[in-house]
Amino acid sequence: MEMSLNPIALLVAALVSLPIGFVWYNPKVFGNAWMKAIGKTQEDLNKNSPNMILIFGLSLLFAFMIAMMLNVVVIHQNGLASVFQSPDLKGKSVQILIDGNVSDISNYFRTFGHGAFHGVLVSIFLALPIIAQSAVYERKSFKYIAISVGYWVVTLAIMGGIICMWK
């Protein structure tokens, strides 16, 4: 079994980060609270005519990189196949195990819910510590951490769900 990598699913997963961000950081949702938490106003953010194409382009690139990493996390069979394809494990019994079991389970746990679950875990155990550690040094508030991490919990759950279910 080879690693399951669906570039279309990865691109769609990356793309969903943008509309989620548009809603999440909308002034009527968390946008005003987030701006207050970072000590900025809408006018501050609009100063110097920011290059929105560059901002959204980089956001999409980073989201695609995250989707590639999530692919490994949400599709368990990728890791199992790579372990058994190690040059040190080329024995006949290993091949029987690969042929008999890995191919049989290649579609197990390939649901939106399963991928979303792992997306939430990644957000809690990876995004939260990264954001919180930076925020502590930058003297950002708990509100800032909660808003930023909340965005990633929702986004990574949806991205993980899309990647996992899309065969």
Q: How does this structure look, described?
A:
The protein has eight helices and no strands. It has about 170 residues and is an all-alpha fold. The chain has one domain (about 5-75, about 110-165).
Outline:
The protein has 167 residues and is an all-alpha fold. It has 8 helices and no strands.
How would the blueprint of this fold be written?
Layout: H1 7-24, H2 27-38, H3 42-46, H4 52-74, H5 76-84, H6 92-102, H7 112-137, H8 142-165
Labels describing this entry:
single chain; 167 residues; mainly alpha; 8 helices
Q: How many DSSP-defined strands?
A: 0
Overall spatial form: globular
**Regions with little confidence, pLDDT below 50 for 5+ residues:** none
Report mean pLDDT, rounded to a whole number: 86
Residues in helices, as a percent range? over 70%
Give the biggest sheet.
Answer: none
Structural class: mainly alpha
Instruction: Tell me the series of helices and strands, N- to C-terminal.
Output: HHHHHHHH
The first-to-last residue Cα distance is 14 Å
By DSSP (H or I, 4+ residues per run), the number of helices equals 8
